UniProtKB/TrEMBL annotation:
Cellular component, GO annotation: endoplasmic reticulum
Family the UniProt entry places it in: Belongs to the short-chain dehydrogenases/reductases (SDR) family.
Gene Ontology terms for molecular function: ketoreductase activity
Keyword vocabulary terms for this entry: Oxidoreductase
PANTHER family (UniProt xref): RH59310P (PTHR43899:SF13)
The keyword Oxidoreductase belongs to this UniProt entry's keyword annotation: yes
Pfam family, one: adh_short
Protein name in UniProt: Uncharacterized protein
Species this protein is from: Zizania palustris
Domain of life the protein comes from: Eukaryota
Length: 87
């Protein structure tokens, strides 16, 4: 989810800003938090995050989890979407 059209950050109303954070950041964090206990219990698992919306958060969150859980048999990856203009 993103802005419906291009605009400066100060022009974004608070409700839309909160909805963007809730969907793009909070949802990923909550789902990850929900599945990790089972993975830790099984001593294995894999988390693959797709960095399309809020890519900096998704990337950094994934890197931190990878370090934190590498010794627990849980692999964490982040796949980043790069639009054609980066290629």
């Amino acid at each position: 989810m993103s802005y419906p059209y291009a605009r400066y950050f100060h022009e974004v109303d608070e409700e839309l800003m909160c909805n963007l954070i809730r969907l793009n950041v909070e949802a990923l964090t909550r789902v990850t938090h929900a599945v990790l206990p089972g993975m830790v219990k099984c001593k294995r698992g894999a988390i693959v995050n797709i960095g399309l919306c809020s890519p900096s958060y998704v990337d950094q969150f994934s890197r931190c989890l990878a370090v934190e859980y590498k010794n627990k048999g849980i692999d964490v990856q982040c796949q980043m979407y790069l639009p054609d203009f980066f290629g």
